[in-house]
Amino acid sequence: MMQNQVNVLFLSPLAYALLGAAIAFFVAALGSSKGVGIAGQAAAGVVAEDPGKFTMTMILQALPSTQSIYGLVITILILGKITPALTIDQGTALFMVGLPVGFVGYLSGVYQGKVAAAGINLIAKRPQEFGKAMIYAINVELFAIFSFATSIFMLGKI
Amino acid sequence: MWKGLRANMAIIDMSLIRLYGLDSERKAMLSDLMRFGAIQLEEVLPEEEAAAGSGLKTSAHSPLSSLRRPDDQKDVLETERQLAGTVEALEILSRHAPEKRPLFSVRRGIGASHLGDLTADRAAVIEGAAAIRQLEADLNTLKTEEGRIRGKMDFLAPWSGVGADLSVEGTRFARMQAGTLPSTFPLEALTASFARTAPTATVILHAAGQDVQLCVAIWHWDVDAAVAELLKESGWNRLSFRDVPGNPDNTLAALKARLEEISIAKKSWVESIRGMSGTRRSIEDLHDALLMERDRLKAAGNLMATGKAFLLRGWVPADRCGELETFLTRKYICHFETETPRAEDEIPVLVRNNGLTEAIRPVMDMYGTPSPKEIDPNFLTMPFFAIFFGLIMSDAAYGLILIGASGFALWRYRMEAPVRRFAKLVLFCGTTSVFWGMMFGGFLGIPAFADHAVWFNPGGEGGTEKLMIWCLLFGVIHLFTGMGLKAANLVRRRQYLDAICDVGFPYVMFIGFGMTILPNVPGLDPITTAPVSAIGLYVLAAGIVLVVATAGRKSKSLAGKMLGGLPRLYDIIGFLGDVLSYMRLLALSLAGGILGGLITGMATGFDSLAARLIGGTLLLLVGHGINFAMSLLGAFVHSCRLQYLEFFSKFLEGGGKPFHPFGPVTRYIVLNQEDEPS
């Protein structure tokens, strides 16, 4: 009886797969939330001085939201792989798939938000440097993109 | 062929001209130059003129010492004063009679020959603007009075019903004061004190507020000192009613009546200002005319005059020099010559693009201005940007929306040049989105389309790897094109050896590296690519030898020549990093596509018909709306980044100063002219 409960908890392929799907989205989305939040606060401060800068600050603010999109896509792809005949190997593998996009997405989202906030302060003084502010923020995103690609390729092996 | 290529690469050659003219014709000439709008004035410095042996110096009657700046400071100030008047009048008008702005605001076009009409009835317009300002001043006086009255009413309101004129300080024998006591102070204590030391004094409570008690104290003058002492001890705060004499109730009624009068007057004043809104156009015209006049007067600060003649220097696009010379010499007595620019002169950069490549200008302008000595990359940036944008969107339906919106805007609305360029960019990007959408079967994520993709379905079996390989290949092409532009710039400067060593040999090295790692690329068969890899190893070795041997050639020491090339090996890592960066194309394209598919799947998955109609439609609109917006953002910023960081870094020197011709800088009207400021 005891043995059986342990099996259900630690050897259920479905539980592992769902955990992977959950991590992929919710960890990445935490990063996006934090990043967009940080940038939004900076943006509101700048727009208080000059409402004309709304569009530029909004674009910069929205940049860290992509991490959660990558996470969502991986979550959906993991869920799509779940079949009734899931083996424990496949279940744990699907769990692993969720890790890169989730955790890298978190840090990349937070830091992209910070860089976007700095960029928003940059265009408060020099609106003509919008392109450069954008590039700084986009540079942080590359790692989320790599982690997304990694998750996708890992998924291809299952 | 070379010449044709150069004409296409549209950084325009500039000539530095010197123009000698008569001082009496100076204002008219500056006015014509402004209308010509294609000369960027440079400051004429007396010391340099002396060193250059200027024509002005040789005249015996006008020695160098008499060179001076034409002094128009007084006129500049006067024009600026009038300008400020029009700005204020326009602000007042837009505050009280706001104008409905069109979607794309466009300045009114005016033929150069109509310029004179703008200022025909200048006195009347100035008067009109002054009248508007006067109305606003009167309105402000009313508002100030209103505020004062409200203050008085707030002060008096608690005293309503007191039934006495509180501004009266007493009679021959009696004193009266109105004031407040802290609400914590017991009134009985004060009455008791009065009874003890000043029996003729009394205090009457009128009303008790939250913080204070409003009281009136009355006493006989012979107990003045005792009352003053007692009141002070109780925390008495005397109130002055000097500004509001009379019975508070009567005063309040009078003030209220005055408030109503003011409110009616204010309305009629605002109406009068609104009535003046018909003069808005003519004030705007005057504003721009004054703006041009001011700039014209300020421009004179760049030139040098002797009292009889003046000298002006400036940059003119080389292909318009002849036109300018004929235009000026036909009308004025003047002498025109071309100067050879010195090495330290900063040549302004004018980029002139055709209808197709001008669309990329918004992207280029965000980055900066190319150097005057290099090829304008717009003709290559444009196709790459549009292709990458489309690849990221890769949804035909989203592309059609972009085409529809930008096409409609271009067809239906008049737009200023920068807005029009942007709309064109959106149109081209929409077209490539439709193209890639068809190639990959992307149409709102509908599975039936994905199954019938023209090329392949990236979401299908092995499609992801295939798309990744193609994205990286596009990256290699993009990067190699950038390096090719560097070579073209070097060849243009006749640095043929540099072109071979700095671009040709790295090409060999990178191609060899790419061939070597081919079997390790996911999705490629390691066995069939093995022979390529084997050859690649030799190519890579040859490339490395060539690069290491030549990259240090500019070093002075022998050791530097031999070892200076070693750090360039790091370029292989840099190149690999650059290529991997194009993986973003794959990731963004897939993310948008998968999300779109999910939304469509959910929207069509409802069981009942009613849920399908209402919930499905709502889900489709909101879901695809968000996905569209996010894809748009991603496509724009990441396509920009691939140009700025991966592409431009390979060749673009930048740092050029954009050409700012002396021309009409206006807000409301636009003169028909050819070269717009970059």
In words, what does this structure look like?
The complex is a heterodimer of chains A (158) and B (678). In chain A, helix 2 runs antiparallel to helix 4 and helix 4 (66-81) runs parallel beside helix 6 (130-156). Chain A has helices spanning 2-10, 13-49, 54-62, 66-81, 88-125, 130-156. The two termini of chain A are 32 Å apart. Chain A is mainly α. Chain A has a single domain (12-156), classed as Four Helix Bundle (Hemerythrin (Met), subunit A) (Up-down Bundle). With 678 residues, chain B is α+β, with helices and mostly antiparallel strands. Among the domains of chain B are: 2-70 and 303-348, 2-Layer Sandwich (Alpha-Beta Plaits), CATH 3.30.70; 168-240, Alpha-Beta Plaits, CATH 3.30.70.2750. Chain B is built from 24 helices and 13 strands. Chain B has helices at residues 2-8, 26-36, 46-52, 55-58, 73-96, 115-118, 122-156, 187-197, 224-234, 248-275, 280-299, 321-331, 361-367, 378-393, 396-412, 417-440, 447-451, 463-492, 496-516, 526-551, 558-563, 570-580, 583-603, 609-651; strands at 14-22, 40-42, 108-110, 174-182, 202-208, 212-220, 237-238, 304-305, 309-317, 334-339, 348-349, 657-658, 669-671. Chains A and B meet through helix 4 and helix 6 of A and helix 18, helix 23 and helix 24 of B.
